[in-house]
Amino acid sequence: MSSITIFGSGNMGGAIAGIAQAGNNDVQTLGKADAATPVQGDIVVLAVPYPEVAGIIEARREQLAGKVIVDITNPVNFETFDGLTVPADSSAAAVIAEALPEAKVVKAFNTTFGGTLAAKEVGPLPTTVLIAGDDADAKATVAEFVEAGGLTVIDAGALKRARELEALGFLQITLAAGEKVSWNGGFGVVR
What we know:
globular, STEAP_metalloreductase, single chain
């Protein structure tokens, strides 16, 4: 059992909280109104839009040190909807890891939608959470809470793979926004 703090209570934050609770984890959800509330979790999930992450890091840098930070963001340029806002050789997860050198950053959940997390399936397939990170213990900790919540996990490799995961997440978002796939649909993995 883990102690998990989730920043954000939208579709993704709510779905991840449900997964964490299904695995009998202690869950704390923090929103903008909780600025004075201390972070309790050993695992911290950033379930907010990417532009909000910098403010959370700035306000809570000391509280986040030593934690496993789960970055679920896709740094989509919402003005043009035509690309990602991080450099081509980087990722949101890499930016977060650089800003929090004393934390262990894991990329996860960004290639799924809240509906498929809550339903635990994508069409006829089980929902698979792809994770990437440089710390094997941190990835194992995240995989454990995800699997305990009833989902499948695939380790996509080192944190540098976050760039490809973010590109996949961006593609899925643009397909859903263009009504090519449902917001309750998405990519599944056949093993």
